Amino acid sequence: MSRQRHEQQHGQKHQRKQERQYEDERESAQRTHVRVAVIGAGFGGIGAAVRLRREGITDFVVLERADSVGGTWRDNTYPGCACDVPSHLYSFSFAPNPDWPRTFSGQEHIRAYLEHVTDVFRVRPHLRLGHEVRRMAWDPDALHWTVETSGGVFTADVVVSAAGPLSDPKVPDIPGIDGFPGEVFHTSRWNHGLDLRGKRVAVVGTGASAIQIVPAIQPRAERLTLFQRTPPWVMPRMDRRISDAERWLHRQFPATGTLRRGLLWGVREIQVSAFTRQPARLVPVEALARLHLARSIKDPGLRARLTPSYRIGCKRILLSSDYYPTLTRPNVTVVSSALSEVRGSTLIAADGTQSEADVLVFGTGFRVTDVPIAERVVDGDGRTLAEAWEKDGMQSLRGATTAGFPNWMTVIGPNTGLGNSSMILMIESHLNYMADYLRQLTVLGRGTALAVRPAAQAAWNRKVQARMERTVWNSGGCTSWYLDAQGRNTTIWPGSTGEFRRLTREVDLAEYDILRARVRADASVPAVEAAR
Q1: What is the pLDDT of residues 315-371, one digit of tens each?
Q2: What's the pLDDT score for residue 382?
Q3: Rounded to 5, what percent of the chain is helix, strand, coil?
Q4: Which key words are in the record (predicted)?
Q5: Which of 103, 401, 411, 497 could in theory staple to 425 by disulfide, Cβ–Cβ 3.0 to 4.6 A?
Q6: CA–CA dist 528, 518 (Å, integer)
Q7: Which residue pairs from 338-341 have beta carbons closer than 8 angstroms and sit at least 24 positions apart in sequence?
Q8: Tell me, what's the pLDDT at 524?
Q9: How many contiguous H segments (helices) and E segments (strands) does the chain have?
Q10: Mean pLDDT of 190-211
């Protein structure tokens, strides 16, 4: 090789090195370091932000991919959208709302409540809207997370993921659906620009969203076809307007609102054992549901198709007083089979039934047991959280922290869902755990991290799964979204909310290894050592 060519190549290498160094320096300059990065601005994320401020921590950001707060209550705007948990229980204990308009409030009121909490507790300065998280990578040398978003790069000592299990819709891959000539959308992505008047509408699914949508859109549709793979158990919805006198009382005497919330909570705590230990105690509840069905549906053939074959409670018990009556309307057809194929505008069920439709609405739930956020979390060895969970399903310690991913927490993680009460109770329990986790890191000093011991996580999950075996969710004879592809229940908490709060009140350091940054004498490069 000639000297001139060698010098040329050397110069090019030097130039590329300088360019890479420049890019690294520029990226580093653009990075923002925070103590805590919170992912998501729904109930979990806003609750985490409020708790951080109340703990005296203001060095944090809330990263939200959308342009406003609200989470699932921002995304789900379908007709009839409302909560099936009483309003006074579906709100933060630290932010009671005396002005709920109904006993079961609608989507617009719940979202307005979250906006109010965001303002009252001064969370807005911490919001980074339009910042979709693309990747979170643990740096084992620096002991921090690098969070890449669509709006910039952040580094954080601790990441709190509050993305929530009801964030990303699940739509089945139906053969021929790409050739459907009409509108197709999921309930959580409702097309409000579409006028359903005179349209033949098909709704796929009979979950909590579908039983609210069907009564709301039936009067407008020319024809409504409901594809029912499995009939749900439905109880009457005891919804009513909260009177002005009640609201005045709660405003003037806040203790009355606290008492109301406590009574609602207590009733549900009493019910827990029927779901978790003694499913036979649900027989009277099932009798009431059968009575509700019999009173609403006089046609014995239709009533038979709407009667579940599994024990009540195995799937979530749905609340509606107008769902059954809507199914008896002349323009409504119930297909007792799943949608299996689409041929143009013709929808073909698994039992061969054919229907014509102009609009296809999927009420098929969300990616709960394979949460997409897990594909974006990367440990120090380049392994994603999704890969870590691939073999044995979603697992964590106390539903909050996961082995192999130090200083990374979830609000509403594996096995923290509920079948009969308010998820806000579980969120607040995790916020207690988060607060103590950060206190422990403060006591341990800068340059430390907590890493879950695999043995501690395994022991916790063995106990959870052992208790799960006798619950109605596992023994009730149904297949539900609580179960993953291998039939494991990685979603539901098999106990009471009071028990979960006790178990997450504080961090047990015996369940963690303490990682401390140290400096190598030979190269002055940060390294890590584990302390027990």
Answers
A1: 999 999 999 999 999 999 999 999 999 999 999 999 999 999 999 999 999 999 999
A2: 96
A3: 35, 20, 40
A4: FAD, Flavoprotein, Monooxygenase, NADP, Oxidoreductase
A5: 497
A6: 6
A7: 338/204, 338/227, 338/229, 339/172, 339/174, 339/202, 339/204, 339/227, 340/174, 340/175, 341/174, 341/175, 341/176
A8: 40
A9: 15, 21
A10: 96
